[in-house]
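Ticket #158: bound-state structure for iron/sulfur cluster.
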Amino acid sequence: MRWCGLHQKNKEQIYKVFTYRQNKLQAKKFASTPFNKRIVFAPHCMRNIASCIAIEKESYYICTRCGGCKICKISELAQKSNYRALYIVKGGRTISKIIKEQKPEAIIGIACFFEGSQVFKVLKEKNIAIQFVPLTKDGCSATDTDLTEVAKVLICTK
Ligand code: SF4
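RESOLUTION: The complex was predicted; output attached.
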């Protein structure tokens, strides 16, 4: 049991190092991408499911800004900054699908370290600048992120 926990911690550390290294490598390209060519992806587990009134589509939600969770502020800032869109995704596969349709040049992904590292790997061959912002509390529901950190990435330019 102890070994299991230790193994899990080591894996998390590997994902963390990998995602932060990728962030650093792609930061300049991300910062030089115009806002209207960027998209934000937030995880559905951040929603306040007791009160969420986001519009549900097949594989994602569109936030209606009820104020029930931090996605509200992120969505407001993204719109104010002229981002193309914010999608609340139900899973990693949705991101590839949306990218195929929307063709953004840069994306922000808010996720746990594991999901974040998967997105970097899956989109490796695409010409898209990615910036990852970690969840400060992960899990299947009521997850959280640092709004200041999201805002810092969202508004960054070169
Ligand atoms: S702010 Fe958006 S995502 Fe959050 S609970 Fe309200 S409608 Fe749902």
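RESOLUTION NOTES: The chain has a mean pLDDT of 95.
TICKET STATUS: resolved
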